[in-house]
Amino acid sequence: xxxxxxxxxxxxxGLGAMxxxxxxxxxxxxxxIIVWNRTSAKAAPLEAAGVTVAASVAAAVAASPxxxxxxxxxxxxxxxxxxxxxxxxxxxxxxxxxxxEARELAAWATARGARYLDGAIxxxxxxxGGPHANIMTAGAPEAFAxxxxxxxxxxxxxxxxxPPGAAAALDFGVLASLFGALLGFYxxxxxxxxxxxxxxxxxxxxxxxxxxxxxxxxIDADAIHHGRYEAxxxxxxICWRSMELLGxxxxxxxxxxxxxxxxxxxxxxGMAAGLGQEAPxxxxxxxxxxxxxxxxxx
Length: 298
Ligand SMILES: NC(=O)c1ccc[n+]([C@@H]2O[C@H](COP(=O)([O-])OP(=O)(O)OC[C@H]3O[C@@H](n4cnc5c(N)ncnc54)[C@H](OP(=O)(O)O)[C@@H]3O)[C@@H](O)[C@H]2O)c1
Prior knowledge:
Layout: E1 10-13, H1 17-28, E2 33-36, H2 44-48, E3 52-53, H3 57-62, E4 66-69, H4 74-81, E5 90-93, H5 99-111, E6 115-122, E7 134-139, H6 141-152, E8 156-159, H7 166-194, H8 199-226, H9 236-252, H10 258-272, H11 283-290
Parallel strand pairs: 1-2, 1-4, 2-3, 4-5, 5-6, 7-8
Antiparallel strand pairs: 6-7
Helix pairs in contact: 9-10
Bound molecules: NADP nicotinamide-adenine-dinucleotide phosphate.
Protein name: NAD(P)-binding domain-containing protein
Domain 6-phosphogluconate dehydrogenase NADP-binding: 11-157
Pfam families: NAD_binding_2, RedAm-like_C
């Protein structure tokens, strides 16, 4: 079923693991979408489910007022849209990229007469369409208005404001928090193994404590936002001592020391800066002092 009509609500470009999940969520909710993928075989299951498959990117874009792109990265997005007529379209970028890439694509799309919405998906494909799929967006408010209902069929959509880099910045903040926590979890899992304890029970414990950890993060964010680090419930020194102890345990148990040594060294920098009695969030001062790139200290 190929179509060059302008009768679709949205075009979805890119049918990798995430693109397929987005297309299925939209189609399941009854959206009239048209899809395209470089490797056409990936569109076959969607076509069998009644979704329109375009013969080219240009045909998909021409058929829809809203164009959603979910491919590997921004350079791939640009190469796909380079010679496509975008004037009057709402372009929604859901591929992962840096805030700078988002700003550049916003300028590029706007110069071609499109309204631009940058998006970041904070979920894995199996979560798309469900309550745990957060989709962060930023950019032109009119573009958000045009795409909001459609994106809401794919996840819990939030608008972070007009600066086009805002969604990517929040995405990267989440990624840093997530993978920092996961690396700690992997060390914890190895620790359980070395103590002969079941890792699945440890995972259950972490899931149960997740809301409390989330609250600690929120309190730390508040401290950084207001610049208040005095009279903490637990000091930066306590964090440093805990990581030192974790390193001692790793050596006693003869397991990998990478994670505790990294964490202890970071808190050690806070100790060396005289921040031991302040809140752990005072680590932000160490990071500000260590900033090497443009915008250091902001
Ligand atoms: N998977 C996740 O859990 C997840 C979560 C959040 C965000 N994301 C983001 O979503 C985006 C897509 O991820 P994914 O998991 O769907 O990746 P994927 O399964 O590797 O699929 C990549 C997609 O990009 C297309 N592509 C790559 N380079 C291209 C090019 N030069 N020209 C045309 N098409 C090109 C591929 O087309 P072919 O099929 O022809 O190769 C495919 O459709 C990424 O930016 C990723 O960071 C993914």
